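Sequence in, structure out. First:
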Amino acid sequence: MSGRPLTVSERARVVLLVSIGLTTLLYLVPYGRVVAYPLMLLSTLAHEMGHGISAVLLGGSFEQFQMWPDGSGKAELRVRDSALAQALVAAGGLVGPAVAAAIGFALGRTERGARVALYALAVLLALALLLVVRNIFGVVFVVIGLAGCSFAAWKASGEIAQLLLVFLAVQLALSVFSRGDYLFTESAQTADGLMPSDVGQMAAALWLPYWFWGLVCGGLSVAVLLYGVRAYWGPRSS
């Protein structure tokens, strides 16, 4: 005797739990951390795109983006000559992964929403590739991501598209915490050398200490994530 079909809310919850289970397995099975490596790069991409999109929204420009195999990245921007604008652009990178995760959860609630989100992500990656990605490693990673999102949105079943989007959202959500130490460091080592961290730049622009801005950005990231997860997990309004 067949059971009743799952509701949208029940299906969404199953997808989220499966995504969390798959994530756990990555850190338990042999070579799982090797498989998780591209997911770490994904958080770097979301971080740097957060800087770039924030700069554009605040009247500046996104000049170029570079990423390196160690997981570091760099966004070259033109930002308005305003301390507040400079601080907001720095914050945009810190909360970028959380915002991307929350959007993924919100759209991943349904199979149709997940497919739309993957198409939108493919378009965003294509634009980034054409306009701002400027080193070979970054190009290779973005091309792979573009191909994967395009294929999943076009050819994968609705269930697989939903699972993929929610799985990626889970990774971005976890990166807020796994890389949270960056919120409380005044400088950061990149492939270009030692540079002021994002919270260090915020402190220089707005005077208060870097750890204060780390607390602010961390708290905002958690609040955004909780909103996204609540919208995803809760019952669907009629």
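Second:
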Amino acid sequence: MLVLFASAFAAHFLVSDPGYVVISFRGYLVEMSVPVLGLLTVTLFGTAWLIRKIIIAPRRIGEAAGRYRSARSGQKMTRGMIEVAEGNFARGERMLARAASTSDTPLFNYLQAARAAHLQGGRDERRDEWLRLAYQEVPEAANAVLLTQAEFQLDRGQHEQALATLRRLDENSKDHGHALALMGRLYFHLEDWPSLREILPRIKKHAQIKPATLATWAIRIHREQLDRAADADTIAAAWKAVPKTHKTDSSLLEAYYTGLMRAGLHELAEKELVSVLRSDWRGQLVRLFGLVEGADSSKQLKRAESWLAKHSDDPDLLLTAARLCLRNELWGKARSYLETVISLRPSPEVYQEYGTLLNQLGEADAAADAYRDGLGMVAGNNLPAITHVTNEL
């Protein structure tokens, strides 16, 4: 209302006196009324606005087309992901791959297409092709592509290829946490203890691995070193390298004492076993005591039989006592101990000792039965006796 009133007021004065404008510029004189000047000004600004719109129109159209294509690509990617989630891997792969060329995130499309190809099985070449395109599209995402490829190869059981991929990634990006974690798991699976030992410090520093898993790896590495030690000095060095927190591990103790016996240090092994068993009774170590060739086997047997006062039904101690009886040629007592062990907890190891004793006593048929029973336990079932072998085979 106010604008209308102001316009009418201005029109009244312009009609009665339209005004006069003179513009002098470089010898030129331009004369016009005020309404004409106003009309020219409005026309000039209108023309400039229109020209600007015409100039930016292609860019605006392109942006609108891009938003449309991006929206369409996003819809295709979503449908492709749904197809993969529902198990339609081939259809999902096609939709994801088609949407990659117009997607704002082609890397994601190619990685998901590779996953869909991988899930189909037997499509490794096409899977790797999608990964190659992902790298070409976004070279700075090389680590992501290599990790994805390594995980696919591990899932397919392609351990050597996965190891090569992870080593390449390690060269590109030193101390990459997830890559180190995968390499550690792979080395452990392949039982490549030297390589695992080499990268374990880096894994502890950079990778997110559960402490229990790290402990398992470290114990297995130290056990391998103890198992390979051939002489007293090497065994001592390997045992010294074991952290204090792991020195109570049963498998490492067993490897250490076995190594001492292998190096001929039976008296040291006997002394240390007695010390450990005094405060920490363990079946594995009790069995080892029966394998130690101490300086005085009679005294060693007396010690084992003294332990029977507290552990009369311990199969490990009974087996140890039987072995020491065999060493002292106490056949009857050894037989009693072994038959008690068989009644409590039979094992191939016990049947082996029992068969050896029966052969010593001249009971060949009974010894054969004992060996057969032991072999049956190894095979998981009772093996039939082989009566004869003919020349027809």
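Remark: Confidence is low (pLDDT under 50) at residues 62-69, 382-393.
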